[in-house]
Design goal:
This protein is of the alpha+beta class and 276 residues long. It is built from eight helices and eleven strands. It has two domains: 76 residues, Arc Repressor Mutant, subunit A; 167 residues, no CATH class. It is elongated and about 105 Å long. The two termini are 40 Å apart.
């Protein structure tokens, strides 16, 4: 292995000096100058490019130089030039194939996902609180309060069915249902803009490229969270001793249990894509 500095400061100037003096340099001379046999081929190819040289009859010559054969000046043959060009074309093809391979590997490592990012203002936004005394007060809400509350519930319910929570936001699993989610988001954002909320707040869906290994890590983490919640609900169900008196509580836990089981099933199905 020849250091870049050694090539630039020592080898190249010597070769150039010889070329300038007699118009060519022999392979024997090159071997003596380069020294390192293992690096010989790579260094010679680099010299050809840097000094615009062509190989002819075991020598490297200038593209405009003549080769002396038996004291007769003979221009570098077209055949020699074509051989050099063919080698250069092949080198470029090889580099192109390598680049294609790198791009293909990159495509296999990353994928495009949509992340739902939001900061939801309360339905009491822009409301007015009127104190009545003795700790009592009434709140006068904005004209969209009821619709905002319904949209928040609709948004959360839909989001949990089509996305999973990650540190960067909620990542969509069911891309085909993005449109329905966007309709809810559009109306929610429209209302809070009318109420004077800053542009940064509200809900938005952003496309992003993520490493597949990172998506897999986020999915596994979210599944563990859901499984912990499921275990907690199942524990609470076992603690119900009177199914008649605590019927409503039991039904609430049963509903929650089914919801968690459904979410875990969806996330596990998505996780299989990253385990192949």
């Amino acid at each position: 292995m020849i250091a870049v500095s050694a090539y630039r400061d020592e080898i190249l100037p010597i070769v150039k000096q010889i070329i300038d003096r007699k118009g060519y340099i022999t392979k024997e001379e090159l071997k003596e100058i380069i020294g390192d046999d293992s690096a010989y081929h790579d260094v010679v190819e680099r010299i050809k490019i840097d000094l615009d040289l062509y190989e002819s009859n075991g020598k490297l010559v200038k593209s405009t130089a003549s080769v002396r054969v038996q004291n007769v000046a003979v221009p570098v043959s077209v055949k020699d030039r074509l051989e050099v060009l063919e080698r250069e074309v092949q080198r470029l093809r090889d580099e192109n194939e390598e680049l294609k391979s790198l791009l293909k590997n990159g495509e296999s490592m990353f994928e495009k996902k949509h992340v739902v990012i939001f900061e939801l203002p309360s339905e009491y936004l822009k409301g007015k609180k009127e104190h009545l005394g003795k700790g009592r007060y009434v709140v006068q809400t904005n004209e969209y309060a009821n619709e905002l509350w319904k949209l928040r519930q609709k948004f959360y319910n839909k989001l949990k069915k089509v996305a999973f929570r990650a540190p960067i936001g909620w990542i969509l699993i069911k891309e085909e249902e993005k449109k329905e989610l966007e309709l809810i988001i559009e109306r929610f954002n429209e209302i809070i803009r009318k109420l004077g909320v800053e542009e940064e707040r509200g809900i938005r869906i952003e496309p992003i490229y993520l490493r597949k290994s990172l998506v897999k890590e986020y999915l596994e983490r979210y599944i563990r969270e859901l499984q912990e919640k499921l275990a907690d609900v199942e524990q609470k169900l076992t603690e119900i001793t009177d199914e008649v008196k605590e019927k409503k509580k039991m039904q609430r836990y049963e509903t929650k249990k089914k919801q968690l089981e459904a979410l875990i099933a969806v996330c596990k199905h998505e996780l299989r894509r990253y385990l192949i």
